[in-house]
């Protein structure tokens, strides 16, 4: 794992965007990007949008696959992840809507929604770089604690904590859906690169657990220890409970030129 500790949330976004741009440059115009919703990746999306606006990055032929979707919200519901991804990713990054995919959380065909999504990812050639946030309880995607470390895209039940954390977006806490369709931990591990961004002291326990604790289904993000190319970009408050932060800073200060990101 590569751990990058940044002085601010804005810097987390710049470094996150630099990582995505590095992979896009390496893969080419048809790069496949895995995207998360929530607050954590917003500074990364902003920095990517700035690159697109400045003509330094072209994602018009790229594809995107979102991690998850609530069950039971229509695609045009403003809090559905279909609509959230349109507002925060597709439009600002000038991506083609037909190449941006979100799992189907409509109630009609939930049993097969996961399998269909897995097939779409495979048909696109797999995910080149997966952007992740992390829940305070260590979930990635909506793989809550106790999720199988080899799970695939499927329906899950949200924990009470996740529903409470996400209630800030809804008028009434009871409106937060109870179920979701989420990529599995095995699906996420299949991405060729993984970039996890986290900011704020509310994420400090989760970051310490997934980076320095054991690999365990009780901290689902810890599965990234099994990934060959996982980059964790955090601000100081999110890094506060890491015991080896001096080493992670030393690694970054000692990078050879060819390994440095163009942030
Ligand atoms: C979102 C997702 C979740 C969030 C996590 C953190 O698509 O899959 O894992 O990344 O809940 O949410 P924020 O960033 O809002 O703290």
Structure characterization notes:
By secondary structure, the protein is an alpha/beta fold. The chain has a single domain, classed as Rossmann fold. Helices cover 34% and strands 16% of the residues. The chain has helices at residues 9-27, 42-53, 81-90, 110-123, 160-166, 185-189, 204-212, 236-239, 245-253, and strands at residues 2-6, 32-35, 63-66, 68-70, 100-101, 129-132, 154-157, 179-182, 193-198, 230-235. The protein has a 7-stranded parallel beta sheet with strand order 1-10-9-6-2-3-5. Strand 2, helix 2 (42-53) and strand 3 form a beta-alpha-beta unit. The longest helix is centred in the N-terminal third of the chain and has 19 residues, at 9-27. The two termini are 19 Å apart. Fructose -6-phosphate binds at residues 36-40, 67-68, 133-135, 139-142.
Lay out the secondary structure:
Layout: E1 2-6, H1 9-27, E2 32-35, H2 42-53, E3 63-66, E4 68-70, H3 81-90, E5 100-101, H4 110-123, E6 129-132, E7 154-157, H5 160-166, E8 179-182, H6 185-189, E9 193-198, H7 204-212, E10 230-235, H8 236-239, H9 245-253
Parallel strand pairs: 1-10, 2-3, 2-6, 3-5, 6-9, 9-10
Antiparallel strand pairs: 4-8, 7-8
Helix pairs in contact: 1-2
Fructose -6-phosphate binds next to loops.
Query: How many beta strands in the DSSP annotation?
Result: 10
* Number of DSSP helical runs: 9
| End-to-end gap | 19 Å
Q: Compounds present? A: fructose -6-phosphate
**Most strands sheet:** 7 strands, parallel
Q: Mind telling me the CATH class?
A: Alpha Beta
Number of domains: 1
**Computed CA radius of gyration, to the nearest angstrom:** 17 Å
């Amino acid at each position: 794992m590569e751990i990058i500790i940044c002085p601010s949330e804005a810097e987390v976004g710049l470094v996150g965007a630099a990582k995505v741009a590095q992979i896009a440059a390496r893969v080419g115009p048809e790069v496949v990007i895995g995207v998360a919703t929530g607050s954590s990746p917003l500074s990364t999306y902003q920095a990517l949008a700035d690159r697109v606006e400045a003509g330094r990055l072209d994602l018009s032929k790229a594809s995107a696959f979102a991690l998850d979707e609530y069950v039971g919200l229509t695609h045009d519901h403003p809090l559905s992840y279909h609509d959230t991804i349109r507002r925060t990713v597709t439009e600002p990054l000038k991506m083609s809507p037909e190449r941006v995919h979100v799992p189907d959380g409509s109630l009609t065909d939930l049993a097969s929604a996961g399998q269909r999504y897995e097939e779409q990812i495979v048909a696109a050639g797999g995910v080149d770089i997966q952007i992740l946030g992390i829940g305070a309880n260590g979930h990635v995607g909506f793989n809550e604690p106790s999720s199988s470390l080899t799970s695939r895209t499927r329906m899950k039940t949200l924990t009470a904590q996740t529903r409470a954390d996400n209630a800030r977006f809804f008028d009434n806490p009871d409106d937060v859906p109870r179920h979701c369709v989420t990529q599995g931990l095995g699906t996420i591990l299949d991405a060729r690169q993984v970039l996890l961004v986290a900011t704020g002291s509310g994420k400090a326990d989760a970051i310490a657990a997934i980076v320095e604790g054991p690999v365990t289904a009780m901290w689902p993000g810890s599965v990234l220890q099994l990934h060959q190319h996982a980059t964790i970009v955090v601000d100081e408050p999110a890094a506060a409970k890491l015991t080896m932060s001096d080493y992670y800073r030393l690694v970054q200060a000692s990078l050879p030129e060819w390994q440095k990101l163009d942030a």
